[in-house]
């Protein structure tokens, strides 16, 4: 028994060693670009990068690289070196704070030395988001990219367009990662911008540091709490968004204590483990040692039943051996022609031995049945206990989640009530209201200029176009809160997208119409088949005799005549009353015609 217990301890220690050996490796790269050379300096990205980098370090990440104000060369080097670290990592995270830009539906991160004078410079001076995803691709369990780069981009305003139809959007465009277990978190949803806030750090960065390091909290829930916090702290103007998907298991960024999945530990656990080991060996000596260690209780009764089963088996084997010997003695006497009395005694002994064997066999089967029934009862009892414990744990967890959700809902209602301004005390200036209305008009496709806060003729025409397409009757002469609420209520594009000739609409963008061979773009910007060119037959001039051709060339030019005048060599005169002009050939076969006065 001591050897069995040593074996149990050995297996347990090996399992503990395996748990330590296979601990997750987590790596993070944090970039904060503030000191841009071609546009105004940003204040928060450097502060946010320092805050988030400290959070990853406190969370126990194996490697945390924090970089500030990277130019294009340094940024390329940082991504390349981080890609090497992710090759043996389980969790890889990249956080980027700075300027980003969306061009034709693709997202790009902007280094500090970028100038972006034209839209084509984006391809040479920035880093596509796909390059960032490529750096974290080797991670085995979780790949996370956090982009705090949805600011109002000054590069987009100063950039010169080389192609009129090339679209440069507000904020960043939505993205669907192609790799499994990959998530991309935006500070603001696609097509909208994020706020830096009035504090040292942005609302998004502060919410990340508050929620992500919670031990055992699933990443999707943590980012959901980040969304709620940012919405509250920005007056419900900025909504973070997450793209990508994970599996059904919880994926915490910081592992928590392992939850118990079976029944809680009890004093009977050691007895049960020793009983199951003794059951696997099943000898009389093992059961005797078990009863010496545990003389009382439920498992002691089971062990006694196992000993009775072994004793019945021994009795059966002894009876079978005696029956065999009696049968052999009977056969020997018969073969030696012994006296009838001796043969009868041997036959009676053989019958008695057989009867004893059958009785022992029956007793053995009875003890085996009792032992099997007791063992099945034990297994059923343990299964029921484990199920009850699991049900209780699930009920406790559901109750805790319900209470947390109710508390969160109550806090949200209280925050909304606190943030909602009184009707009689507006908190926005007229210029702020104007800019907000212009931003919403751009969102629904009715305004194609920048939101400058000046309600000019272009803005008035845009609001009038919104009224026409949305069926509203807002006063287009001014920007009001009523107009802001009405435009916000529209989820998608309201004003139709108008493209120039040779382009067609594709969602919220204009794309060039390309026709296949044999087709051309018509006036409606649609492809039509080029018609076949039919040869035009040249009219053959009639042949004239040389004399007629010479006569025609020598004839004096005559003035243009009308239907009322007749001319000859003597001059022109009006047609006589009752007469008419007829065109006749000068001679047979001639092509020359002359007007002849014909009178009835």
What does it look like?
The chain is an alpha/beta fold. It has 4 domains: 24-245, Rossmann fold; 268-418; 430-488, no CATH class; 560-599, no CATH class. The chain is 46% helix and 14% strand. It has helices spanning 2-21, 44-58, 72-85, 122-125, 129-136, 154-158, 203-211, 219-233, 268-281, 284-293, 298-336, 340-419, 430-443, 457-470, 481-488, 546-554; strands at residues 26-32, 63-68, 91-97, 100-103, 106-109, 127-128, 142-148, 168-169, 182-186, 241-245, 503-506, 509-512, 519-521, 527-529, 565-568, 571-574, 579-585, 593-599. The strands form 6 sheets. It has a 6-stranded mixed sheet, sandwiched between helices. Strands 6-5-4-8 form a 4-stranded antiparallel sheet. A hairpin with a 5-residue loop joins strand 13 (519-521) and strand 14 (527-529). Helix 2 runs parallel beside helix 7, helix 3 runs parallel beside helix 5 (129-136) and helix 11 (298-336) runs antiparallel to helix 12. Mean pLDDT is 80; it is low at 6-22, 421-426 and 557-562.
């Amino acid at each position: 028994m001591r050897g069995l217990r040593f074996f149990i301890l050995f297996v347990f220690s090996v399992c503990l060693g395996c748990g330590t050996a296979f601990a997750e490796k987590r790596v993070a790269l944090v970039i904060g670009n503030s000191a841009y050379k071609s546009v105004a300096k940003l204040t928060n990205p450097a502060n946010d990068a320092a805050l988030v980098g400290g959070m990853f370090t406190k969370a126990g990440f194996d490697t945390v690289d924090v970089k500030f104000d990277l130019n294009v060369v340094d940024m390329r080097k940082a991504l390349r070196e981080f890609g090497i670290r992710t090759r043996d990592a389980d969790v890889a995270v990249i956080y980027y704070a700075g300027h980003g830009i969306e061009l034709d539906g693709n997202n790009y991160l902007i280094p500090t030395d970028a100038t972006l004078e034209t839209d084509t410079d984006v391809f040479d001076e920035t880093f596509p988001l796909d390059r960032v995803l490529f750096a974290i691709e080797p991670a085995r369990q979780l790949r996370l990219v956090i982009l705090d780069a949805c600011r109002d981009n000054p590069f987009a305003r100063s950039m010169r367009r080389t192609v009129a139809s090339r679209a440069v959007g507000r904020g960043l465009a939505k993205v669907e990662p192609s790799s499994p277990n990959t998530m991309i978190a935006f500070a603001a949803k696609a097509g909208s911008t994020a706020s830096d806030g009035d504090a040292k750090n942005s609302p998004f960065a502060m919410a990340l540091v508050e929620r992500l390091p919670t031990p055992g909290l699933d990443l999707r829930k943590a980012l959901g709490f980040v969304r709620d916090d940012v919405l509250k702290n920005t007056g419900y103007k900025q909504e973070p968004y997450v793209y990508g998907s994970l599996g059904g298991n919880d994926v915490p960024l910081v592992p928590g204590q392992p939850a118990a999945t079976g029944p809680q530990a009890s004093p009977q656990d050691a007895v049960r483990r020793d009983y199951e080991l003794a059951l696997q060996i099943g000898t009389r000596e093992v059961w005797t040692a078990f009863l010496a260690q545990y003389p009382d209780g439920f498992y002691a009764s089971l062990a006694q039943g196992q000993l009775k089963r072994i004793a019945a088996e021994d009795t059966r084997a002894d009876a079978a051996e005696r029956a065999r010997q009696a049968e052999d003695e009977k056969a020997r006497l018969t073969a030696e022609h012994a006296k009838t009395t001796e043969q009868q005694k041997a036959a009676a002994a053989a019958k008695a031995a057989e009867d004893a064997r059958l009785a022992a066999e029956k007793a053995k089967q009875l003890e085996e049945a009792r032992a099997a029934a007791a063992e099945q009862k034990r297994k059923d009892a343990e299964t029921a206990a484990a199920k009850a414990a699991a049900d209780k744990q699930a009920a406790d967890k559901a109750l805790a989640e319900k209470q947390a959700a109710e508390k969160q809902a109550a806090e949200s209602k209280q925050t909304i009530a606190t943030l909602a301004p009184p009707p009689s005390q507006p908190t926005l200036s007229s210029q702020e209201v104007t800019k907000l209305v212009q931003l919403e008009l751009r969102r629904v496709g009715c305004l194609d200029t920048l939101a400058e806060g000046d309600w000019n003729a272009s803005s008035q025409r845009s609001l009038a176009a919104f009224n026409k397409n949305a069926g509203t009757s807002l006063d287009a002469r001014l920007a009001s809160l009523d107009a802001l609420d009405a435009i916000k209520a529209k989820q998608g594009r309201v004003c139709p997208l108008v493209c120039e000739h040779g382009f067609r609409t594709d969602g919220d963008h204009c794309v060039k119409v390309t026709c296949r061979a044999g087709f051309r773009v018509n006036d409606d910007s649609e492809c039509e088949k080029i018609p076949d060119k039919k040869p035009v037959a040249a009219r053959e001039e009639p042949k004239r005799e040389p004399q007629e051709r010479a006569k025609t060339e020598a004839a004096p030019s005559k003035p243009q005549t009308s239907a009322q005048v007749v001319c000859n060599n003597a001059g022109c005169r009006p047609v006589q009353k009752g007469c008419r002009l007829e065109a006749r050939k000068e001679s047979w076969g001639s092509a020359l015609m002359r007007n002849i006065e014909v009178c009835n």
